[in-house]
Amino acid sequence: MDKTAIRDAATMIVLRDRLTAPSVLMGQRGAGAAFMPNKFVFPGGAVDPVDATVPLAAPVCAPCDSRLTEASTLAPGTLAAAAIRELWEETGLILGRAGDWPDPPKGWRGFGASGHLPDPSGLRFVFRAITPPGLSRRFDARFFLVDADRLTGDLDDFSGAEDELGLLHWVPLDEVRKLDLPFITKIVLAEVRARLPSVDAPEDVPFFRNDDEARLVRRLGRGEA
Description:
Shape: globular
Radius of gyration: 16 Å
CATH class: Alpha Beta
Order of helices and strands: EEEEHHEHEEEEHEE
Distance between the termini: 30 Å
Largest sheet: 9 strands, mixed
CATH topology: Nucleoside Triphosphate Pyrophosphohydrolase
Strand content: 25-35%
Number of domains: 1
């Protein structure tokens, strides 16, 4: 695979106790990671082809569905499924609804064995950004916001996580900027914080599009070219 190609990706922003003392789930990338080593990030990663094949317990909400289809060839359900899978893989936390899944595909077998189907109905599409040129990896990332109350199980139990992220923990929003964050993560957090306590779908979604000529910003949902 061409490492300079832009890969579709999905990222999960999980908010806990948003009405009282909001915190967000963060983890640290390893020192040897090819992409953003040592940075604290949200759970997320590249879309896998299999994500387009998984059964969903519910559809993506209507406003988010339409925003996700702007300037994209991927189905909204595929992007949402990728975010749910990455959350499961990197934290062990489940965003799903109880349901029978007799033959889940590779990459989803652990999730399916938990007795759940992925449920994107609580996801809100809030941000999109393309990694700027010059980095070792480039991603076209869609950021999804979800209230931690939508998750199943113990929110402090990360024992089912794979080892992709270290130091998984809930960080108070008042303190999260003390961490070593990527630039775009700071921007996304500012957008989320400005809208609290609401986790409703925004009227339009910021899209940071980086290319060799310019850093372009548009708002998905306003019909901007």
